[in-house]
């Protein structure tokens, strides 16, 4: 994730920075702090610090991944990772496209439930819009897992989701804004774009705005 930080500001929230690299930033300690944090976040990481053990692999499982939108690069990356994983496990994976709208996402979810898979993965869309069909899935003994469905990682009990896989959205948003501050030497003029359909996008955009506003000579030109 760190090595991609300089190339993407977030999956569903954008930030554009216009920089003036020759301006001194000595009078704003926040700019120096931004540079230090960005350097640390983007340094090479060559050691695995994740889990090295896990449960025994179950055999012959089927999964349906419901994408928020197949035009979203982050979602496509997750699908690629899942396809690689099922090749190793021997499981079956089907992908349905939510096509970026609530109606399509709900239609895909209902279609997935009708197929009776072992598990359904909510891929980057808000489960709050699907409370009734999610209850139906649970009633039919379908396991629910999600990716970036809510801002926090872990189980989401109110939706019956076993685990939501996500990074710390606040931290990612903060680092994205700090990158603009650091690269502009504290002169960033930014436009923050978000999508009100997604809770994570709204939260990221707000954190970006708050971070930019801590920089004395930076300015948020637009926020929408």
UniProtKB/TrEMBL annotation:
Gene3D superfamilies: 3.40.50.2300. Residues 1-26 form the signal peptide. GO terms for cellular component: cell envelope. Keywords: Signal, Sugar transport, Transport. It comes from the Bacteria. InterPro entries: Peripla_BP_I, SBP_2_dom. This is ABC-type sugar transport system, periplasmic component. It comes from uncultured Avibacterium sp.
